[in-house]
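Per reviewer request, we include the raw input and output of the structure prediction for the construct analysed in the revised manuscript.
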Amino acid sequence: METKKRLVVLGGGESGIGAAVLGKVKGMEVFLSDCGKIAPRYLEALDRYKIDYEQGGHTSELILNADEVVKSPGVPPTAPIVRELVERGIPVISEIELAGRYSDAKMVCITGSNGKTTTTMLIYHILREAGINVGLAGNVGRSLAWQVAEDKHDVYVVELSSFQLENMYDFRANIAVLMNITPDHLDRYEYKMQNYINAKFRILQNLTPTDAFVFWEEDPVITEQLKHIATEARLFPFAETQHEDSAAWTNPSGELFIKTPGTDLVMPRAQLALRGLHNLLNSMAAGLSASLLDIRKEDIRRALSDFEGVEHRLEHVETIGGARWVNDSKATNVNSCWYALESMKPGKSTILILGGKDKGNDYNEILPLVNEKVKAIVAMGKDNQKIVDFFTGKVAEVRDTHSLADAVKACRELSEAGDTVLLSPCCASFDLFNSYEDRGRKFKAAVREMKKQELR
C-alpha cells in the first residue's frame, strides 16, 4: 500500500489554511503548525476538513518528518524551524507554488513595491465586469490554494509579494505584471537591495513565448535588471510618455493608448476613474493585461472609468473645518508616499502623518515634494526619532506623537480650510497596530468620531 505524502504547513492564516485544505483534498496527510494563535474561522475550517494542527509553538518532531513543507509568507526564511528544514533537505514551497500544481486556469500575477493592489483589483474588476469566471487571490481576496480546492475559476488574478515569490519554483504566470521596484522590506533581505530585486524578478520564472511580461519601462531598477535577465515571454512595456517599444502610453493631448496584437484602444485620460500619475500607470498595466486576455475594448474602457478604488489607498475619509482627511495607510514605504504626495495639490497645504516600524527608509526621496507641498509633519509611532531628526529644520512644524488619538488631535490643531491631512506613513504598522488595514480603519474611525463631535 502506497504511503500518503506528508504535507506540513507553517502558519495558520489565510495562506496556510488554504494550503492545508488543498493538501487534504488531494489526499495528503496534512499537519499545520502555527507559533501564534489561529483565528476561530480558520480553526473551524481545520476541524471541518479533519486536519491535525497545533498552535502556540512548533513541535519539531511533527514538522521535520514532512515530505514537503508549505511556508506561509509571514514566516521568515531565518526562522529556526525553516533553517532546520533546509539543512535536512526537506523541500519548502509557497502556497502559490502548491496551488499551481493543481490548476490549469490562466494566471495573471502582479507584483511591485507599489501599486500592485490597485492594479490587481482593477484587472479583477475589468474581467468580472466582462463576465469572466475570475478569482481574486494572493495578498488580496481568498487564498489561491483554497479556491483551487473549493471554488475553481477560469482565470485567477493573483497579487504576489516578494515574500510569496521567495518559495515559488515551478509556478508559471501566463501574464506577469511588474509595476516598479523601490526599497522595501530591506530588513527581510539583509538590507541588500539586490536581494529584494531578485525576489521580485522571480515572477518571470518559467514564462514561455506564449506568455506576456507587462512592466513599467521608465523604472530604472527594472530596466537595469532586464539587461542581465533574459525571458522568452512577449514584452509589453508601459510608460507615461511614448517610447519606441511602448504598448501603453499617453500623448500631450491627454489620450491614453493601449496596443496589443488584438487590441488598439484609445480613451481620454480624464475618463479614468483614478487620478494621479501612479493610478495612470496602474490603469495602463490593467488595460494591457485585460487586452492580452481578449477582453473587448468597450468593457475595458467602461471598467477603467467606473472603478471605485481600493481601501486605504488615497481614500477620502471626511472634510472637517474645510480640510480633507485622506487615508493612505497602505503607503508602507517611502516610494508609495511619494506617489501620494505627487497627487496632492501644489502649495504648502498638506499635513503629513508619518511613522511606524521603519524598514530602512531614506526620506530624501520624498524631500523635494515635502518642501513643495507639506506645511507640517506629525510623527505617529513608538519611536519617531529618525523622522523628527530628519525633518526638523526642513518643515515649518514637526510634532512628535505616540498614539493615534494624539496624532489626530495634532493634525486638527494644525489644519485649516483648504488643507489636506494625509496619513501616508512610509512605514509598517506593527509598532502601534496589527496591520496597515487596522491602522487605516482606526484612523478613519477616529476622524469620523471627531467629525461627529464637532457637529454636536
